[in-house]
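Key result, reporting period 2: structure in, sequence out.
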């Protein structure tokens, strides 16, 4: 059985340890985002992508998507890749609950 995507956060709680990560990805109720370094691509449900450079705009007030279309495409490809990984996991045998349910009668 393949391991699920992601990394364990246990080392962060058990000793001084820095979390090494390449990128962050999320999807919640249609809202989506991808972060790579100081760049964050984000979109509300059914809205176009917005791009922010967090090192100079921590509050995400200046959408840079029009100025950096290549960065938008790069982060969108990254986001789609992660989405495909999650979909593949969700439809694999690993996602099937093989346990039993005890019902009181």
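The corresponding designed sequence is given below.
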């Amino acid at each position: 059985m393949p391991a699920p995507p992601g990394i364990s956060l246990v080392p962060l709680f058990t000793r001084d340890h820095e979390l090494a990560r390449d990128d962050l990805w999320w999807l919640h109720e249609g809202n989506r985002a991808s972060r790579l370094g100081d760049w964050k691509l984000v979109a509300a449900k059914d809205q176009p992508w917005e791009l922010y450079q967090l090192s100079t705009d921590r509050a995400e007030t200046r959408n840079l998507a029009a100025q950096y279309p290549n960065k938008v495409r790069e982060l969108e490809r990254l986001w789609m890749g992660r989405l495909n990984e999650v979909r593949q996991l969700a439809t694999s045998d690993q996602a099937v609950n093989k346990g039993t349910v005890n019902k009181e009668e």
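The first strand starts at residue 24 and ends at 28. The radius of gyration is 18 Å. This case is discussed further under Risks and Mitigation.
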